[in-house]
Amino acid sequence: MSQLQRQVFTTPSQYLNSLQYFERLLVETQKNIQIQKGKLLSGLKKIQDTFEQIKGLKEKLLGLQPVLQEKNFYLKDLLQKLTQDQLQANMVKKVVQQEASELNIQGERILILKGEADQIYKDALPMLQGAMDQLDKLSRGDIGEIKQNNNPHPLVRFAAECIAIFLEEKPDWENIKKNVLSDAGLLMKLKSLKLESMTPATRKNIQQKRPF
After folding, report:
1. Predicted pLDDT of residue 135
2. Which of 86, 89, 113, 156 could join 152 in a cystine, given CB atoms 3.0 to 4.6 angstroms apart?
């Protein structure tokens, strides 16, 4: 401006606006300085806390040295005991192997007994199938007559007990009369039964049944 030999005049309004701008700039700068100062103080506090923690850990480790030595002695004793236990375990292993051999023999016997039980089951199936075939001839009146009989024929009782087992009911005669023969839908349930869907527990109970 001095080279151009010009004079620049500032109005009061422009002067006030400039002051307000510099005031805002000063406030923002002071605010940023306070924020940075706070971050620095926080960082210094964390560093100081870390030093204190390290100091505490070092003191704790020094205090644990006697304990660590004691643990070292304990581990040595433990290793000796484990060695002795291993010798005893080897002796027990020999005994277990002998018992396992005996169990294998017993297992073979069990397989034989299972085969006999399965044969009994197969022998009982025709009798059960025959009873199922007679369902079409059975009426509610026939069931009522059976229910009124307190001492039924052994074959009738056997058939009723097998039916109770199929229906997962107790096979005693009083329960059969109360919960099996009194069921209005008994005939439909019996006709819908499938021998091949018999559960292992039911099969076992059937295998244990005898007609007399």
Report:
1. 66
2. 156
